[in-house]
Protein backbone atom coordinates (compact mmCIF):
# COMPACT_ATOMS: atom_id res chain seq x y z
CA UNK A 1 0.00 0.00 0.00
CA UNK A 2 1.19 3.48 -0.72
CA UNK A 3 1.59 6.12 1.95
CA UNK A 4 -1.45 7.98 0.61
CA UNK A 5 -3.55 4.80 0.72
CA UNK A 6 -2.42 4.11 4.29
CA UNK A 7 -3.32 7.67 5.28
CA UNK A 8 -6.81 7.23 3.80
CA UNK A 9 -7.18 3.88 5.55
CA UNK A 10 -6.03 5.41 8.84
CA UNK A 11 -8.49 8.27 8.42
CA UNK A 12 -11.35 5.83 7.72
CA UNK A 13 -10.34 3.77 10.76
CA UNK A 14 -10.26 6.85 13.00
CA UNK A 15 -13.67 7.94 11.67
CA UNK A 16 -15.08 4.47 12.39
CA UNK A 17 -13.62 4.49 15.91
CA UNK A 18 -15.09 7.95 16.56
CA UNK A 19 -18.48 6.82 15.26
CA UNK A 20 -18.33 3.76 17.52
CA UNK A 21 -17.46 5.87 20.57
CA UNK A 22 -20.44 8.14 19.86
CA UNK A 23 -22.75 5.13 19.46
CA UNK A 24 -21.52 3.56 22.71
CA UNK A 25 -22.00 6.83 24.60
CA UNK A 26 -25.52 7.21 23.18
CA UNK A 27 -26.37 3.62 24.14
CA UNK A 28 -25.05 4.06 27.68
CA UNK A 29 -26.98 7.30 28.03
CA UNK A 30 -30.18 5.60 26.86
CA UNK A 31 -29.58 2.61 29.16
CA UNK A 32 -29.14 4.88 32.17
CA UNK A 33 -32.54 6.45 31.48
CA UNK A 34 -34.40 3.11 31.52
CA UNK A 35 -36.50 2.94 34.70
CA UNK A 36 -35.72 0.00 36.99
CA UNK A 37 -39.17 -1.53 36.49
CA UNK A 38 -38.76 -1.47 32.70
CA UNK A 39 -35.55 -3.56 32.51
CA UNK A 40 -37.45 -6.84 32.17
CA UNK A 41 -40.28 -5.56 29.96
CA UNK A 42 -40.06 -5.94 26.18
CA UNK A 43 -40.98 -2.80 24.22
CA UNK A 44 -43.19 -4.89 21.93
CA UNK A 45 -44.20 -8.55 21.54
CA UNK A 46 -41.30 -10.58 20.24
CA UNK A 47 -38.73 -7.89 21.08
CA UNK A 48 -35.93 -8.15 23.61
CA UNK A 49 -36.08 -6.50 27.00
CA UNK A 50 -33.52 -3.79 27.81
CA UNK A 51 -31.79 -6.29 30.11
CA UNK A 52 -31.53 -8.88 27.32
CA UNK A 53 -30.18 -6.30 24.91
CA UNK A 54 -27.51 -5.15 27.37
CA UNK A 55 -26.53 -8.75 28.14
CA UNK A 56 -26.24 -9.53 24.43
CA UNK A 57 -23.98 -6.53 23.85
CA UNK A 58 -21.89 -7.39 26.89
CA UNK A 59 -21.39 -10.98 25.72
CA UNK A 60 -20.58 -9.78 22.20
CA UNK A 61 -17.90 -7.42 23.49
CA UNK A 62 -16.50 -10.18 25.73
CA UNK A 63 -16.19 -12.53 22.73
CA UNK A 64 -14.58 -9.83 20.59
CA UNK A 65 -12.10 -8.75 23.27
CA UNK A 66 -11.15 -12.40 23.93
CA UNK A 67 -10.51 -12.93 20.23
CA UNK A 68 -8.45 -9.74 19.99
CA UNK A 69 -6.44 -10.61 23.12
CA UNK A 70 -5.46 -14.19 22.36
CA UNK A 71 -6.73 -14.98 18.87
CA UNK A 72 -9.31 -17.49 20.08
CA UNK A 73 -12.41 -17.07 17.92
CA UNK A 74 -15.93 -17.71 19.11
CA UNK A 75 -16.70 -21.36 18.38
CA UNK A 76 -19.62 -22.05 16.03
CA UNK A 77 -22.32 -24.26 17.53
CA UNK A 78 -23.65 -25.61 14.25
CA UNK A 79 -22.08 -28.35 12.12
CA UNK A 80 -20.66 -27.61 8.67
CA UNK A 81 -23.78 -28.00 6.51
CA UNK A 82 -25.95 -26.20 9.08
CA UNK A 83 -23.49 -23.30 9.15
CA UNK A 84 -23.72 -23.06 5.37
CA UNK A 85 -27.52 -22.98 5.49
CA UNK A 86 -27.52 -20.40 8.28
CA UNK A 87 -24.95 -18.22 6.51
CA UNK A 88 -26.87 -18.42 3.23
CA UNK A 89 -30.46 -18.05 4.45
CA UNK A 90 -30.45 -16.52 7.92
CA UNK A 91 -27.47 -14.15 7.98
CA UNK A 92 -28.70 -11.97 5.07
CA UNK A 93 -32.06 -11.62 6.82
CA UNK A 94 -30.39 -10.60 10.09
CA UNK A 95 -28.14 -8.09 8.37
CA UNK A 96 -31.00 -6.57 6.39
CA UNK A 97 -33.71 -6.51 9.08
CA UNK A 98 -31.58 -6.25 12.20
Structural notes for this entry:
It contains 3 helices and no strands. The chain is mostly helical. The chain has helices spanning 3-32, 50-70, 80-97. 70% of the residues lie in helices and 0% in strands. The model has no long low-confidence stretch (mean pLDDT 89).
Topology of helices and strands:
Blueprint: H1 3-32, H2 50-70, H3 80-97
Briefly say what this structure is.
With 98 residues, the protein is mostly helical.
Number of strands: 0
N- to C-terminal distance: 34 Å
**Unreliable segments (pLDDT under 50, ≥5 consecutive)?**
none
What percent of residues adopt helix (DSSP H or I)?
over 70%
Order of helices and strands: HHH
Key traits:
98 residues
